[in-house]
Amino acid sequence: MKRGKKNAEVMTVNIGSMITEKIKEQKIYKSNIAQKMGRQETAIFPMLKRPSMQTTSFGKLVKQLGIIFFTK
Q1: Does residue 2 have a pLDDT over 70?
Q2: What is the C-alpha to C-alpha distance for residues 10 and 63, in angstroms, rounded to an integer?
Q3: Distance (Å, rounded) from C-alpha 5 to C-alpha 27?
Q4: Per-residue pLDDT, 5
Q5: How far does CA 51 lie from the centroid of its chain?
Q6: What is the per-residue pLDDT for 65?
Q7: Of 58, 63, 71, which Cα lies nearest the Cα of 18?
Q8: Mind listing the pLDDT tens digit for each residue in 6-62?
Q9: What DSSP element (H or E) covers 12?
Q10: Is 19 helix (H, G, I), strand (E, B) or coil?
Q11: What gap in Å lies between CA 32 and CA 11, rounded to an integer?
Q12: Whether the Cβ atoms of residue 4 and residue 10 lie closer than 8 Å to each other
């Protein structure tokens, strides 16, 4: 995590990197995730390179990985 440029108190998170890390830890093929999400494999790669993403895309990815990033 990096600190934000404007406010040193704010931490920025690269969601794509975090999810990629979990995919590697779980040894899951990106093609399997894409298939379960109903997307082409080529659509997954750009999603994982982005530092942020739509919450619906994020939700679908973490559901397929079976991980919880945020808790109450």
Answers
A1: no
A2: 27
A3: 34
A4: 60
A5: 9
A6: 81
A7: 58
A8: 655 666 778 888 888 888 998 988 888 888 888 888 888 888 888 888 878 888 888
A9: strand 11-12
A10: helix
A11: 32
A12: yes
